[in-house]
Specification:
Length: 221
């Protein structure tokens, strides 16, 4: 089985800014490119931070209101650089949580959840930014067709990995939910089959109705 990794899902054309990029220019980039964040690179091209819409909003909200009124919500495109926040260096979040090019969807999703972020810059072995991956990108895994999921389970899981006889297990997939029917040689194989099927990209649920010919777990424990 080949699971899709970050390389397969990430956006490769990454727009970046330098540490000395002005606040207003960053706001214009986010608005015009319809993106929510940009990586910040130093003079040698190394990742040193990330500027998001939230960072710009946070810094702007910290500015005093000359009229003493409550802050008024505005779009990023309306912002002017504050007196204390002129460049990316002043507003960026650092250090940056990153993903590696070979990470699985599970690893990447876990990193996003643990760090409460919606996107991650993707770096290679030299820590150079090669892409950006978002929650939306990860969800593309679940857009696989039912046919593609069924074929992967039938051929990659049941035949190639587990060497089961063709037709021993029938696989039905509807809207990403896999139903398994049939009989495997040994009872110990049932959880193995189920685990591998759940791990196939695009599977959102599993209904296992597998039987077994021999109970090889008798006497365990």
């Amino acid at each position: 089985m080949r699971h899709r990794v970050v390389d397969d899902l990430m956006t490769r054309d990454v727009i970046t800014v330098q540490t000395d990029t002005p606040f207003k220019e960053i706001a214009e980039i986010l608005t015009e490119q319809e993106i929510s964040a940009v990586p910040v690179l130093d003079g040698s091209g190394r990742l040193v931070g990330l500027v998001s819409e939230a960072d710009l909003l946070r810094k702007e909200a910290a500015q005093a209101d000359p009229g003493g009124r409550e802050p008024v919500r505005r779009s990023v495109s309306e912002f002017e650089p504050g007196t204390a926040a002129a460049t990316a260096r002043d507003v960026m979040s650092a250090p940056v949580v990153t993903a590696r090019t070979g990470w699985s969807v599970v690893e990447t999703a876990r990193a996003m959840k643990q760090n409460s972020v919606k996107r991650l810059p993707v770096v290679d072995d030299t820590d150079r930014v090669v892409g950006m991956v978002s929650r939306r990108d990860l969800l593309r895994v679940f857009l696989r067709s039912d046919r593609a999921i069924r074929e992967e389970i039938e051929y990659d899981v049941l035949r190639e990995t587990l060497a089961l006889d063709p037709g021993a297990v029938q696989v039905h997939v509807v809207d990403g939910v896999v139903t398994l029917e049939g009989k495997v040689p040994r009872r110990s194989l049932v959880p193995v089959v189920e685990r591998l099927c759940r791990g196939a990209d695009g599977v959102v649920g599993l209904d296992s109705r597998l039987a077994f010919a021999e109970d090889d777990t008798l006497g365990e424990g």
